[in-house]
Amino acid sequence: MFPWDPPRDAHTGDFYTGGARAAPGVDRDGTFPEASLAALAEIGLLGLVSGADVGGAGAGLDTAAAVIEQLAGACGSTAMVVMMHYAATAAIETFGDESLRRAIAGGDHLTTLAFSETGSRSHFWAPQSSAVTDGDDVVLDARKSWVTSSGHARTYVWSSTPLAAEGPMTLWAVPAETPGLTVATDGFDGFGLRGNESTPIAAEGARIPRAALLGADGAGLDQALQVVLPWFLVLSAAFSLGLSEAVVDETRRHLLETRLEHLDRSLAQEPIQRVEFARLRIDVDRTRAFLADTLAALGSGRPDAMLRVLEVKAVAAESAAYVTDTAMRLCGGAAFRKEVGIERRFRDARAARVMAPTTDALLDIVGRAVLELPLLGPVVDGEV
Fold it and tell me: Using CA atoms, how far apart are residues 15 and 263, in angstroms rounded to an integer?
């Protein structure tokens, strides 16, 4: 799975046991997982998808997905932070300059996406923020609504309206220390993923060099569809799969270890519980197969690759919602206890449905694709 063999726990064989131990506290206190990220940086995982030519591991999307799956099973907040870092890094690897690429490959330069805005909500392809040329600089004004790792990332892959070119958006690599950027001070107090620090960022006259442009002015949507979106959607699916696998493991343990003393048998010996557990296992296996097929389609350049990419996040998100909900019922009162971890993953799993593009937005786009309608924007009569 990995391009090298990272340090592993001598007892479990897991490379991320520290994150699993820290996860309940991250969830309880809503704290950003600094220690976990430092540990991941130390073993090279924050430079995983950076190019080998700048000192990174040069790993592809399949390896990144395997990493995100394992991280999500341990700590959803950490997995989300790393997932957004990988998606942003993919954009910078393709369109950024060498110095920034080298900084990220070094492992101590966290990145993230800053796409969602107050004015356009989950319609990431329609930024309302502006970018205006002022001499050799560009001045940004924006109200970004959900930015994972706000205040912790060192570079934001930022969307705006174009400077002058045609097209719906332009992408920038915006340093976190840019004057005029303001991170919301009240933090993130969410239902799930409580440590991922997804808070708003405002830009008021934020001045950046024109060299911060990623690619060409006005080409941001094409860049997002070709690079950022495949990484984001596939890794989101891996995130949901990791949560689901962890919950299935906890449910299996509960069924095997919990006994009905008056009947002198375990819950695993009850036919209703076995049937419900089988449904969970089949659903997770189905999601894994869909994710594997999506990666295979991308790797081979199959004609249906982009359709699979558009589908995979919705497939995995709905599966995780079903799996975690069923596990809560199947494990009864035990699942409601914080120390078991099922209710935490139940809450974390719901985030995938509302992260842009949301499940409903993706279903609409998939419907447009198979009906041969425009993928984005209004649909009117005669557009078949």
Answer: 40
